[in-house]
Amino acid sequence: xxxxxxxxxxxxxxxxxxxxxxxxxxxxxxxxxxxxxxxxxxxxxxxxxxxxxxxxxxxxxxxxxxxxxxxxxxxxxxxxxxxxxxxxxxxxxxxxxxxxxxxxxxxxxxxxxxxxxxxxxxxxxxxxxxxxxxxxxxxxxxxxxxxxxxxxxxxxxxxxxxxxxxxxxxxxxxxxxxxxxxxxxxxxxxxxxxxxxxxxxxxxxxxxxxxxxxxxxxxxxxxxxxxxxxxxxxxxxxxxxxxxxxxxxxxxxxxxxxxxxxxxxxxxxxxxxxxxxxxxxxxxxxxxxxxxxxxxxxxxxxxxxxxxxxxxxxxxxxxxxxxxxxxxxxxxxx
Amino acid sequence: xxxxxxxxxxxxxxxxxxxxxxxxxxxxxxxxxxxxxxxxxxxxxxxxxxxxxxxxxxxxxxxxxxxxxxxxxxxxxxxxxxxxxxxxxxxxxxxxxxxxxxxxxxxxxxxxxxxxxxxxxxxxxxxxxxxxxxxxxxxxxxxxxxxxxxxxxxxxxxxxxxxxxxxxxxxxxxxxxxxxxxxxxxxxxxxxxxxxxxxxxxxxxxxxxxxxxxxxxxxxxxxxxxxxxxxxxxxxxxxxxxxxxxxxxxxxxxxxxxxxxxxxxxxxxxxxxxxxxxxxxxxxxxxxxxxxxxxxxxxxxxxxxxxxxxxxxxxxxxxxxxxxxxxxxxxxxxxxxxxxxxxxxxxxxxxxxxxxxxxxxxxxxxxxxxxxxxxxxxxxxxxxxxxxxxxxxxxxxxxxxxxxxxxxxxxxxxxxxx
Amino acid sequence: xxxxxxxxxxxxxxxxxxxxxxxxxxxxxxxxxxxxxxxxxxxxxxxxxxxxxxxxxxxxxxxxxxxxxxxxxxxxxxxxxxxxxxxxxxxxxxxxxxxxxxxxxxxxxxxxxxxxxxxxxxxxxxxxxxxxxxxxxxxxxxxxxxxxxxxxxxxxxxxxxxxxxxxxxxxxxxxxxxxxxxxxxxxxxxxxxxxxxxxxxxxxxxxxxxxxxxxxxxxxxxxxxxxxxxxxxxxxxxxxxxxxxxxxxxxxxxxxxxxxxxxxxxxxxxxxxxxxxxxxxxxxxxxxxxxxxxxxxxxxx
Lengths: 334, 418, 301
Known about the structure:
The complex is a heterotrimer.
Chain A: H1 6-24, H2 32-57, H3 65-82, H4 87-109, H5 114-134, H6 136-139, E1 145-146, H7 162-185, H8 187-197, H9 199-204, H10 209-235, E2 237-238, H11 245-258, H12 264-279, H13 284-301, H14 305-317, H15 322-326
Antiparallel strand pairs in A: 1-2
Helix pairs in contact in A: 1-7, 2-7, 2-10, 2-11, 2-12, 3-4, 3-5, 3-10, 4-10, 8-10, 11-12, 11-14, 12-14
Chain B: H1 14-36, E1 45-52, H2 59-78, E2 82-84, E3 87-97, H3 102-115, E4 120-122, H4 127-139, E5 143-146, H5 153-156, E6 162-164, H6 169-184, E7 188-194, H7 197-212, E8 216-223, H8 231-240, E9 244-248, H9 251-263, E10 269-272, H10 279-285, E11 293-296, H11 305-318, H12 324-343, H13 348-356, E12 359-362, E13 365-368, E14 380-391, E15 394-400, H14 412-417
Parallel strand pairs in B: 1-3, 1-4, 4-5, 5-6, 7-8, 7-9, 9-10, 10-11
Antiparallel strand pairs in B: 2-3, 11-14, 12-13, 14-15
Chain C: H1 2-35, H2 42-60, H3 64-95, H4 99-129, E1 144-147, E2 150-153, H5 154-176, H6 178-188, H7 190-195, H8 200-226, H9 232-247, H10 252-273, H11 278-292
Antiparallel strand pairs in C: 1-2
């Protein structure tokens, strides 16, 4: 139904497994700091790539994506701390809650386009922030919630250990990436692109624009909420600052720098920007100069983002097809 | 994306190349770290972690803290260090920047505990940061000595290993109310509060004290964080005509409030808490600050011996007078020294016990703790008056307590007409 | 007596604040109407205007209210520079694209460009002037005017007068002068304007100059009143967008009315609902309008 062919899956799986193998090596550096940063990278990867579904594929600009991240984080936290629900279930519920929120935002936004949509999503992010900040009996407001329980152990797996959490985040992150890429390349994804490219034509062939846009909202926000839960049980402290415009812009920048409409581009963007912001930590004040400058540079000179531009370059100049190499066909330009 | 990117069903081939690059980097990193791993030789040291906002908007206080801590450590180490039983241990101070950000703070605290294995942590400036890291530190059984953060909850929780060497929010608010009632004898009061937990709680505590003494509340106004225009609130207060106005606001907001109060002709006695005890505030508020009565945790101009000693040493080392943050942190390090020496061993429980029964002469005054680890210090009450070498001709004059007193209270009407 | 005094006071204060909102909103609306993009960095030009005014005040030893127009011109010129180097190339790329996605992606690119610019400029201010708030010295500080029971500072009055003057000048410029008419023509139909011989890119430069200069002027005249800090633009930009949306995006006159309306709504609303919610009022109005009447109360693009 979704049009995900076995072929598609088979062509993606090799990349998936290679990534798993390579990234599994990271804890062997023995450097806890890098492991920690990578965990954050995986979380942001999920955020940036899920945003791509909305912005890159559906063409709906969302300046409030961090709000769903925060909703997922708070949901999982509050459920585990107030109601004693296992954080494992909390993660999923966080995603579902965020998804419902996505629905709530998506419905009124269906008829909005361009800057109106952008400002609405911006507004939503601010409203969520205000809620989290002011409903102090529930959320402790600006003080945030410390002492969040970690993910309960599974057998010999102890999730308070950074390395264990690393593998968890890695598998989850890469799997989410895989799922999103499959969705994006499926028939559903193609319809989204059709809507993005020419809404009227899509309507003419009978596509229910509203339904598809809404689904896109729900998918993107579900993953964002999931990422929120993963963050909460790792850092074990959350605050309304998770839902600020600044956070949303950070996510959007990752998607932008990586490249809209590619799913993997934003993942790369997350990797790049997280490392830049960590490496630049000593230059804290200058950090945003570089950040902002980078955004301006990419928009001006590399609008497809880094991956997007690379893709364009290589698809017009040929490259290696992994499938063909395996089958012994050697290299062949496309 | 001005051209439509051809959508293919398989990942673009170039992704393989990207993976290869990432792989090379990762493998390189692994080799680098495994080959270069070394272990530092063991010495007789006690590791103490310091978390403070060294960068960001709170960096002024954070750096003050850092300098206070370094002075204390230098003094102690130059005398041999901390005496544990018969051995002297030097202090190794590991300083981490928390940026005033609780999430960042939890990460550096984790590093201090797991990688550096510190015995105790001193910090921090911001209450939300301290509250955020407290559970982790307690879980890992390290001592936490708080030098600056005021949220009452930090010690109210009653954690065995948490101690605070400065007065908390409740203490500074009630001591302030007490002084105002005893010395200004107001009949009516008004509140102008930041619409936050901090603001509302503080206002409630102050108002409760006043009302219990029979003073009537005639106005209660709030403002959201980020407000710059206070005309609405101030004009409502002006109409109510209170004898004193208690304000809880951050430095810049406070400056604006006082300025705008003058502008609309509201010239009553304003009273505030310790947040404005900074030279920065006097800079920003200018003339409008004249007459303000507020709390201070430490003034470098005080003549009390222990404090004056500290100020001299600090000025010599750093070339500038210390602010309250340095004073608190200095006291915190010394508290640890005395407690460890009293306990006689490097055992967290023993040291915690010892600290609870400490009673020493700190830079901020006499320091002794209650059963929750809260030091029972007195705060200073100061008034902004005209002084020589002031900032824009103004400076803080200590009115109370008697050991630190520098001058008398001058009523607002008198100050404004002079 | 106190209730009616209360209302009257808030009315006056509301109109005074409204003038400033109108100034900033008009510029933003103009950019949207003429150049068809949303400038998320608008607040940063307000901020730069304030800081440059401060720098010039210290350097030249003159009162900030004299120096502010100069700062405004500097910022306006900076705007032209940004237009030529960053914005115009995006236009060129946009004109080569096809289909709906082309428009939205281009719109997205402008928004992201201005967002990146905003981040950059805020950090630039942080690096140059540090995060500590700065007071702008002015000989007019602490001087008040009292009319009946209402009191306010001379600075506020002056700010209000300057705001109204510049708004009036803007209005007359757009309605009466040839360039003003050219601007309006371009905003209605760029293609047709080109056919009639209007140099679109010159118009864009002029629009940017005026728009950013007005924002900067607002910053310059408010700086002495509220103290400067690098994030001051961020607080203002939300209100600017609220004004633009209320008045209708692209409707400059509409945003002027909307500016005053917002000022009044905030102050009167604060009186009745509670002053702590004052800041949220503009925001809530904006959301309501967006969802119920996106074209704005007075109609726009």
